[in-house]
């Protein structure tokens, strides 16, 4: 297959590109900068210059390939409405050109915001609907293409896709702990975060594009849930800092923007995903990665 990948130079995207290439696929990667373009070319991918706001470029990339993996996101946590609108527009633009083609369109989704008192399952319906909702309601939007000659797929990624080089939520927690002189968790720290190593995540993306049926919702999760107090304790050990409990009423003042995420229970099962893809995570656990020291270098 020749696969169009947005976010191709990002954390998950760069590993997905490597995984696809290693499996014998061709990759057309969206690149916003000269540095990203050079990195993709060095890996052996074709390059399409543009960004998430270049809807004509997104349409061209999707139209000229055998399938699309949409992993780009603005991640503007200060202005979520900007990220939500961009995500909605991008998915709509790509989906429109794929109608009637029977090609796969995999988009990245999340596990936060379901409001359940148990781990999220693949059969749980995402409550985000409409352009003003989280991620612009893109999950429900893309799944609606299943009856229109598109093979839509949703990959709900664990809140921490970890590994050496991670610049995501765990890296933000480490930076926050350094700044405040203590690794904090919210409340009693009993709520949990699902986790997956980035190489396992990339493999799940590749397997899904290759064969998951239309309308599949996949949980790219290796560990169902790691207690947030355990994550904070590992960060404290890595930085040789104390670990403390943060009053839920003060998470924003104490932990900044990452506190709103760290104060949520974002656990999820993956039984259906493993069975559907024949996927068995084999990478290091989050505890292994934190103990390895790469987050503290």
Automatic annotation (TrEMBL):
Superkingdom field:
Bacteria
Q: Which residues form the NAD-dependent epimerase/dehydratase domain?
A: 3-211
A Pfam short name: Epimerase
Entries under SUPFAM superfamilies matching the protein = NAD(P)-binding Rossmann-fold domains (SSF51735)
**Listed InterPro entries:** Epimerase_deHydtase, NAD(P)-bd_dom_sf, NAD(P)-dependent_oxidoreduct
Name-wise, this protein is NAD-dependent epimerase/dehydratase family protein
- Give the species: Kineococcus halophytocola
Question: Taxonomy-wise, where does this protein's organism fall, top ranks first?
Answer: Bacteria, Bacillati, Actinomycetota, Actinomycetes, Kineosporiales
